[in-house]
Write a structure and sequence with these properties.
single chain, about 525 residues, alpha+beta, six-stranded mixed beta sheet, five-stranded antiparallel beta sheet
């Protein structure tokens, strides 16, 4: 039924919505003062110009102009109608929409929960003892089958939720399933609801010319690139330890969990991406991400791609965890009841060194070093930048002057630019400047400062500063000091001008102001 349905309690829903909660499901947000930032999802960019204000409950991109609230974001990002976006948000916050026209309740989640129970029960049937034993031989136990939603899809499915299951492409019109006779893994979203399945082959059915794993088709409630297996189960341990292990396969994740590493998740047959990063990042800030993929060429390539994604997104709190002992994967360790041991390597250090090792020509080496320099230059946090420089120097055997000289020559030397950019990203600091600065203290940026602070209008020059990745922001702890320094510079400049012009009145005026202020 496509008829427009009026929601009568929309304002009440909006009061329940937290834009940070909504957007952090899809984007890797970083705290920046009172606001959050990230790269804009609606256009390509290298440095963040996408700002989210929890106070105003809106987002705005200073690069492409995209803006709106949480509902608008879902509409644009997921290509949903307004009604569909409302339904999704209401479902996430357990809010009941009141509508003027009744609409049949969606039973997709209910259908998948029922099917998951059927799969688990079918696996325990007497005729499937061999398949059960196959799983036990791989190190699993009976309780694991329940805990990790492992089952077996029967040859034909019951018809109770046929309409919903056909719509989700899990059931055909003839009551069979693409998962028939396969071992199934129930896939749960962040709120622990079954949203789909992944199903694998086993030795007791002749699966000819077919993939080892197949997943549920994309649907209104399932997108495999956004799901991390075991996340809802591991959530509390990830938050507690501020650390997560990311692996490639379900069995590896289960094996880690059984061996005591409870803060583990797995990708569902897709490369690690920004959706996965968002799901992790939204749990708690500064979670350490350990990438632990298979010890083969494909696993190493997957690790490198994931590591590059993390670094390009500004997440340097990461490591590559390699298995010791010559095992192919974690599942093999569990199966052989061996000891689990990792060799952990700092992510950025590995990124620096590996790029040099794999470079084929001197030109490629130079390009890699310049890439590292650009990554470091983009960082606005002084202490993080110093840490990255130290790691790069250590890995690449470079002189410290290679980075410090670059910093001196960089146009990012204007205190006025840095202060204005900091204010643009964190309006809560304006009060500090109002107590200390006058417009003219900003020199050539006086009009841009005045326009933003008093009129909430961004000039073109202010937009350029905001988007210029070479201009760093000022840490909160140093902001007041920088404001005072800007005031001191202004008075000194006026005193020098007065001396040059032999303007005694101005000299006395600004010298007196300097002494009064400081």
């Amino acid at each position: 039924n496509k008829e427009c349905i009026m929601v009568t309690n929309l304002e009440a829903l909006k009061e329940r919505i937290d834009i940070i909660e909504v957007l952090s499901k899809y984007l890797p947000l970083r705290k920046s003062g009172v606001n959050y930032t990230c790269n804009c999802p609606f256009h390509q960019e290298r440095s963040p110009s996408f700002i989210i204000s929890p106070q105003k409950q809106i987002y705005h991109c200073f690069g492409c102009g995209a803006s709106g609230d949480a509902i608008k974001f879902l509409q644009e990002y997921k290509k949903l109608s307004f009604e569909e976006a409302l339904e999704e948000i209401a479902n996430d916050v357990n809010f009941t929409l009141i509508k003027t026209q009744a609409k049949p309740q969606y039973k997709g989640y209910e259908a998948l929960k029922s099917l998951n129970d059927i799969f688990k029960e079918h696996l325990r049937a007497k005729e499937n003892e061999k398949i059960m034993q196959y799983l036990f031989n791989r190190g699993l136990e009976l309780e694991d089958l329940e805990s990790f939603d492992i089952g077996l899809c029967p040859n034909t499915l019951p018809t109770e939720y046929k309409k919903e299951l056909v719509e989700l492409a899990i059931m055909y019109e003839n009551n069979k399933s693409p998962f028939s006779n396969r071992i199934t893994f129930g896939l749960r979203n962040a709120t622990h609801k079954i949203v789909g399945f992944s199903a694998r082959i086993h030795p007791y059915v002749n699966f000819i010319n077919t993939a080892k794993y197949i997943n549920s088709k994309e649907s209104r409630i399932f997108n495999k690139s956004q799901i991390l297996y075991n996340l809802s189960k591991a959530r509390s341990e990830i938050v507690k330890q501020k650390s997560v292990y990311v692996v490639e396969g379900f069995m590896d994740c289960i094996a880690l969990y059984k061996m005591g590493v409870r803060n583990c998740v797995a990708t569902c047959g897709t490369a690690f991406n920004t959706h996965h990063l968002s799901n992790i990042n939204r749990l708690k800030e500064d979670i350490h991400i350990n990438l632990c993929f298979d010890n083969d060429e494909a696993g190493l390539m997957a690790s490198k791609r994931a590591l590059e994604l993390l670094i390009n997104q500004g997440f340097f709190n990461c490591s590559l965890s390699f298995l010791s002992g010559g095992f192919k994967d974690i599942g093999e360790i569990l199966q052989k009841k061996a000891e689990l041991q990792f060799k952990n390597i700092d992510g950025f250090s590995y990124f620096c060194l590996n790029g040099i090792k794999t470079a084929q020509t001197p030109k490629e080496k130079e390009q890699h070093i310049n890439k590292i320099k650009a990554i470091i230059a983009r960082q606005s946090n002084f202490y993080l930048k110093e840490e990255l420089i130290a790691k790069a120097i250590d890995m690449l055997n470079l002189s410290p002057s290679f980075f410090t000289q670059s910093s001196k020559n960089n146009k990012n030397t204007s205190l006025e630019q840095s202060l204005l950019k900091t204010l643009l990203l964190d309006e809560s600091l304006i009060e500090i400047t109002l107590n200390c600065l006058d417009n003219e203290d900003l020199g050539e940026y006086a009009q841009d400062y005045e326009s933003f602070v008093f009129k909430k209008v961004l000039t073109q020059k202010a937009r350029d500063i905001l988007l210029d990745e070479s201009i760093s922001t000022i840490p909160f702890a140093k902001f007041k000091h920088c404001v005072l320094e800007l005031k001191r510079r202004y008075y000194k400049l006026q005193i020098e001008k007065a001396k040059a012009k032999r303007d005694i009145d101005s000299l006395i005026l600004y010298t007196t102001k300097m002494h009064e202020f400081f």
